[in-house]
Amino acid sequence: MAHLGEVVLVVRDYDEAIGYYVDKLGFELVEDTVMSPGKRWVKVRPSADGAALLLAKADGDHQESRIGDQTGGRVAFFLYTDDFARDHARMLAAGVEFEEEPRHEPFGTVAVFADLYGNRWDFIERTSA
């Protein structure tokens, strides 16, 4: 297989989710295409060479019940950086809520944050191999 293209993230509202991932996390909006009334194909990603999040608006109560808890409370996503201090400070200034202070692990510097829906992310600067 060549690479992972997109990962679906169930969201409450397209524009609300775009605002968070683009304005607060610094992702780029890759695509926003209207598919039908009430349905759009919305992709965001942190860099040009990574997988994208396909922001899928919940359709009905069953899907809405999964917003923010698609992994049962576990960390769902891993966002890598080449400069933890720089990007952590930018994210804090943009209003990203971290669950902990940065910690240093054998694999690198990491801190967990929750996105606007409560999905948990590891924000990591990997230690050089």
Please provide a brief summary of the model.
This protein has helices at residues 14-24, 61-64, 84-93, and strands at residues 6-11, 28-36, 39-45, 52-57, 75-80, 97-98, 103-105, 108-114, 120-126. With 129 residues, the chain is of the alpha+beta class. It folds into 2 domains: 1-67, 2,3-Dihydroxybiphenyl 1,2-Dioxygenase, domain 1, CATH 3.10.180.10; 69-129, 2,3-Dihydroxybiphenyl 1,2-Dioxygenase, domain 1, CATH 3.10.180.
CATH level-four homologous superfamily name of the largest domain: 2,3-Dihydroxybiphenyl 1,2-Dioxygenase, domain 1
Q: Beta-strand percentage?
A: 35-45%
Number of strands: 9
Radius of gyration: 15 Å
For the record, give the distance between the C-alpha atoms at the N and C termini, rounded to a whole number.
Answer: 25 Å
- The CATH topology name of the largest domain reads 2,3-Dihydroxybiphenyl 1,2-Dioxygenase, domain 1
Main beta sheet strand tally, sense and closure: 5 strands, mixed
Q: What is the CATH top level name of the largest domain? A: Alpha Beta
Number of helices: 3
What integer is the average pLDDT?
94
- CATH architecture assignment of the largest domain: Roll
Secondary structure category: alpha+beta
List the quaternary state of the chains.
single chain
- Give start-end ranges of low-pLDDT stretches: none
Global shape: globular
Specify the helix fraction band: 10-25%
- Strand and helix order: EHEEEHEHEEEE
Number of domains: 2
Describe the structure.
This protein folds into two domains: 1-67, 2,3-Dihydroxybiphenyl 1,2-Dioxygenase, domain 1 (Roll), CATH 3.10.180; 69-129, Roll (2,3-Dihydroxybiphenyl 1,2-Dioxygenase, domain 1), CATH 3.10.180.10. It has 129 residues and is α+β, with helices and mostly antiparallel strands. The strands form two sheets. Strands 5, 6, 7, 8 and 9 form a five-stranded mixed sheet that branches. A four-stranded mixed sheet has the order 1-4-3-2, with helices on one face. Helix content is 19%, strand content 41%. It is globular, with a radius of gyration of 15 Å. The chain has three helices and nine strands. The longest helix is centred in the first third of the chain and has 11 residues, at 14-24.
